[in-house]
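User: Sequence recovery, please. Input:
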């Protein structure tokens, strides 16, 4: 198993989690989600000597991508998303207006991913798990025994399904038939809130 360091940052109006995941041997890294370009991210990257190759988006909702344009420049990294969420990302300002936030420029992406893709970064093999339900193009990223679940799965909760592209049936299927098939000991790093474990959620998540 690869030696991996995970640094967590909480940023944005909705207290999003942003994760910097560093391969300890090569110092190659990814950033997962991009709610805001808070100074702590660049500072941590510099202090750790990390080289961020990709910014991996779990989905296209505004609160996960508002800092993407800025972070791409700061980190000189490529942006990655599932194509099914381009419609949400491209229309970011329909969502920012709902929350009374200023308009943003829709981000551009360098790489599109699909279910089962493996993204090599240093010694890490990052597996893409397509988990529609919160959005059509929602994905989770599995790196060894760590699952970055975006807004698909939270501790004792799940992502909302009342926005465009949401479906509780699809979300439930994604969690039961994909995420809950994973090892119980896998740590879940969600898009909001505290970490949890697959086994814990199987027992205690009453929404599934």
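Assistant: Recovered sequence (208 residues):
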């Amino acid at each position: 198993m690869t030696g991996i360091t995970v640094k967590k940052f909480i940023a944005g109006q909705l207290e999003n989690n942003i994760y910097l995941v560093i391969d300890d041997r090569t110092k190659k890294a990814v950033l997962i989600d991009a709610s805001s370009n808070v100074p702590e991210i660049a500072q941590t990257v510099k202090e750790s000597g990390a080289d961020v190759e990709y910014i991996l988006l779990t989905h296209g909702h505004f609160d996960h991508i508002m800092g993407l344009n800025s972070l791409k420049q700061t980190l000189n990294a490529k942006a990655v998303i599932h194509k099914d969420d381009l419609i949400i990302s491209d229309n970011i300002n329909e969502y920012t207006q709902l929350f009374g936030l200023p308009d943003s420029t829709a981000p551009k992406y360098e790489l599109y991913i699909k279910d089962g893709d493996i993204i090599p970064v240093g010694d890490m093999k990052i597996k893409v798990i397509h988990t529609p339900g919160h959005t059509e193009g929602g994905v989770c990223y599995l790196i060894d025994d760590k699952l970055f679940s975006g807004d698909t799965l939270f501790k004792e909760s799940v992502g909302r399904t009342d926005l465009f592209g949401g479906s509780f049936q699809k979300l439930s299927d994604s969690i039961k038939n994909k995420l809950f098939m994973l090892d119980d000991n896998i740590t879940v790093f969600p898009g909001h809130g505290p970490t949890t474990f697959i086994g814990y959620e199987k027992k205690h998540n009453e929404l599934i």
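The first strand starts at residue 4 and ends at 11.
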